[in-house]
Write a structure and sequence with these properties.
Length: about 180
């Protein structure tokens, strides 16, 4: 089911509102078992590398998992790595739960070095911001198999945890943990 139902919409809205007072992941998902574990899986389209595992367990982030995620989400143009904002990882957990999927997140772009960002802007790539959240490790461009761009965009909007934009020509959704906004 790739479309957001009215029940899912209301549930996510209520959960998002309650997240102001508790851990946003636990509140939005309403799943007490996530108190002990949070998992993600990625497939980096440009390098064909994968990550699947638990990045948060027993109340804390797992350093080795974060290192593995940082490697998979690195700038594939120059292999430069950067710390990935933990809020972004938590947002992706919320997104997959809201979409009712365990499919890997297909990554078009995770971290982007300042040099790569400048090169892309100068090369005329559409939508590359001068002060991109990718450069801060706070943004990711994604697809999820079996889910439409609209479903990904709308579910991320409901979570109200940052920015979200659809790039239909390039077939991806941009998600970040900057100010809440959409395009």
């Amino acid at each position: 089911m790739s479309q957001l139902t009215r029940r899912s919409f209301v549930g996510l809205g209520l959960a998002a509102a309650s997240s102001l007072f508790t851990d946003p992941v636990l509140a939005a998902l309403g799943k007490p078992e996530l108190k002990n574990e949070r998992k993600l899986s990625f497939y980096a389209l440009n390098t064909e590398e994968k990550y699947a595992g638990t990045y948060w367990a027993d109340g804390q982030y797992v350093p080795d998992a974060l290192t593995d995620i940082q490697n998979v989400l690195r700038d594939h143009h120059n292999d430069e790595q950067h710390e990935i904002d933990l809020r972004l990882l938590d947002l992706l957990v919320l997104l997959r739960a809201g979409l009712h999927t365990n499919e890997p997140i297909q990554v078009i772009c995770g971290y982007r070095s300042p040099q790569t960002n400048d090169d892309m802007r100068e090369g005329g790539h559409h939508g590359v911001a001068a002060h991109s959240y990718h450069v801060l490790g706070q943004a990711i461009d994604i697809r999820i198999q079996g889910r439409t761009l609209n479903a990904i965009h709308n579910t991320t909007l409901l979570l109200a945890q940052g920015g979200v934009g659809v790039y239909r020509r390039s077939n991806f959704v941009h998600v970040d943990v900057g100010p809440v906004r959409h395009w």
